[in-house]
STAS domain-containing protein
Amino acid sequence: MNAVTEPLDNLQSLTSLTVLNASAALERGHAAIKAGQTAFDLRHVLTVDSVAVSVMLAWQRAAHDAGVKLELRNLPPALQSLTKLYGVCSLLFPSDVQLEQDCRAPRNPAQDEFAPVKAPDTVFAKKTAVAGDSAAHHHH
């Protein structure tokens, strides 16, 4: 693939993916897929909302229907966070694309609020080491 003279739209000029431009982005992606584009570069997408996930899923469906494999590249952290929040990483990245944080571990984002905080042991020990250590005596 010659990256220098790539005539197909890889959506690299897309800077936001929100409810305001979802329809346009969707159509643009569909047109690019129809034209034979198989990779979208989303490095410049800095403004996102939950619609971004729907748009990316729709692109993947369109690519699947067209019999091609669409690669979504260079997702900014905000976009990565959304894909994890909605638990759709494996749908959006069916290949072995590694995001900055692996998103394949199934989890319920709603439970994050109750998840134990992973603090460094030293900080944890100081905060919980109380005289008479009542923390060691759990009453059920």
Notes: The chain is about 35% helix and 5% strand.
